[in-house]
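Per reviewer request, we include the raw input and output of the structure prediction for the construct analysed in the revised manuscript.
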Amino acid sequence: MAKKTSEQNNEIGWILRDRKVIDGLDHLGVELVSVNLYQAMLPGLTNVTERARYYSFYPWVLHRFAQDGPKERTKLTWRTWFRTLDFAYAAACIAFEHEIQLGSGSSIVGADKASILVAGKGAGIKVDLLSACHVDEKGSVPADGAYFKNPEGGYGQYYKGPFRELGIVSNHSGPAHPDVKLTNFAGLKLAQSLDGHQGFEELKQIALDGGATVSDLARVGKLVHPSAIVSGSEEESLLRSLLLGNDKELCQAQIPQHLQWRRRSLLLILQYVADCGSLEGDAPHEFRWSCTAKAMPSGEAWPCPPALEGTANSWGAYQRNDLLNYALESLFYASLLRLDERPYPPLQLAGILADEAMAEVPMSNGYKQLPALPSKVGHWVANCTRTVQDSSNDPWGGNSTWELSNRLELAVKERDTSLIAALAARVLGRLASDIGTWEKHPFEEIFDGVEMASKYEVHLKGWVDRANRATNQPTRDFLQELLLEWVLFRHLRVATRKLANQGVSTYKFRPEEGELLMIAEKPPLPTFTAPRLRQSFRILEDLHCLSRVNNGFEISEEGRAILEASHA
């Protein structure tokens, strides 16, 4: 980092006085549209609702408290009951995973603490569970030693909101512990599907006892693990119907548009796996790109059934919007790399990056050379346009949108400032022309998508409109203005808003005497959003709609039957 004077190193008082400095996320404030899009297309699932069984296990915990819990229903008794069962579940599942030497990544709530207690202990050693789930006399979680900080564990932190969305729980009319009750048409049915289940009965006894031997935990863990939903069971049937929206009575509290969108997205995933035959590697990532290019990983065309075509188009629009965000964040990253060398006036910094964006891209890492950008915006966009024939004949080949994205990600990884700017400009040019199938708006088929996007400045439609308005403008001038408005000054506006609203400082640079001065310890890397697809694949696997084959997926017979029934 370039040497700065002691005066320069002093943070501006109005920025940091009595404020907390954090790294923060979304430093340009451009990711909200992408987040809102995937929330609209997969409601009821989140990036932390990882396993299907929690949608039945937590209702069962609520139900058993009502049936078997202490007569005195206080905050203390409820939280003690819940946390003891929640952590007993974690310990049992982790003991089973250790026994079969299953690697990490099973997404068990409380896994870290459970692993500490179980690891390295012999089968006959008793594990004490109470200290990790203890709450004090006020029902508060101790500062140290707890398996989870949220008083209601993974349920309160991750699943409570989705449970309301899906109609599993409803709020009590007055003060109560817990503050929700199971709905008779959904929550109670899910809970009762685990009543009498041997593993969960033994789990309840372990929780009441406050511990068990490692071997007993592992034995019970085998029965209750998220991967152990019994094929053909009532639990499986209810969970499928709830998430796929197959049962009107079960789903009566769900917003119809939300139910339809989640159903279509999950069916589209099943259709994608079925059409691909077998998937290896990062299937959720490939799914996003396949929706964009309407092609399978093999390069063959992916013709969706008419009923799911609009859903695929919408996921393609989401992916394009997310790539727009990534390109802008990459330009922000390149600007921070420059500021890490020395301060710059904003206009000068934007000009340097615009010049780098205009330059030709040399051949490297097996990628071909790309010519310098033409002088007019319209010609730039035209030069970045890929022909329909190339897109259909070779969707993943040279100069495809996915290849441009990969090249940009590689340049970011290598911290190649000039190459980052040049490739980000090619991606932006491609996105101004590769608009998919939409006519009026890319989000026109998504529930409330157009209205939602209208509240924000930066999104795919806004970018296409901006490029179209500037057809005859000099490309360099256009890029310089873009860098000033949508990158440099936008970061200052977003960071100032976070400071005012949240009391935290996320500034990565600050203005001082007409220059931008780097204040971050290190530049934050650009990121793509995480659209709940990985969780969707895993939940469909838990419910035996998808089968795990090696490191990939195949559709199961049950999944194929669900697809065929949806097309009937």
